[in-house]
């Protein structure tokens, strides 16, 4: 006769950590899917929203509103999302009196533009300008600029001419003279012109010493009773004077 063995039955053990992990993973995936759908819907809606406001920041003296509007026509009809910010910056930088531009989006519908204008410091070679960084730029004349020095020189010499102008003009003004023009020739010779038309020929040396020599000798020259047309200071010592011819009746 066989012996029957009874075993007690129990529920299998559940790893609740694994179950919770799976449920958490499912929740995260569902959340990401829902969030992606909402984000896609939001972006789709934003792409249909036009730019309602443009904030123009920065002091402007020479750039006109109509020029800015014409430059912004490049993004006409675009939304804040689809508008090409680099295209905006490039179009505004091409305006003649604009030096630098920063463009920034401001949600939900504003475009903020920071404009830094060229600051004219001198006329250059007759028809161009020098800005605050001694860079040459082309721009139409504007009212309110005032009197500026006339500078001239070969291509690539603008910074050198500007730095010498600052040194020469300061020394002359301190001694009662009014410089108006500084020219660097293609042979690298310097010529200063005063307000009354008197030319100071300095030669190729950029030294202040020659200009100082003119200042020291000017009281003697001014007592000669004749009008000097130019003063040649290219010599190591002394100078030469070219007198204006007297007009005869």
From TrEMBL:
It is a single-pass type II membrane protein. This is Cell division protein FtsQ. The keyword Heme does not apply. It is found in: Cell inner membrane; Membrane. Transmembrane segments: none annotated. Residues 49-118 form the POTRA domain. Keywords: Cell cycle, Cell division, Cell inner membrane, Cell membrane, Membrane, Transmembrane, Transmembrane helix. PROSITE patterns: POTRA. One of its GO terms (cellular component) is plasma membrane. It comes from Ferrimonas sediminicola. It comes from the Bacteria. Part of a complex composed of FtsB, FtsL and FtsQ. The keyword Acetylation does not apply. GO terms for biological process: cell septum assembly; FtsZ-dependent cytokinesis. InterPro entries: Cell_div_FtsQ/DivIB_C, FtsQ, FtsQ_C_sf, POTRA, POTRA_FtsQ_type. Essential cell division protein. May link together the upstream cell division proteins, which are predominantly cytoplasmic, with the downstream cell division proteins, which are predominantly periplasmic. May control correct divisome assembly. Its main location: membrane.
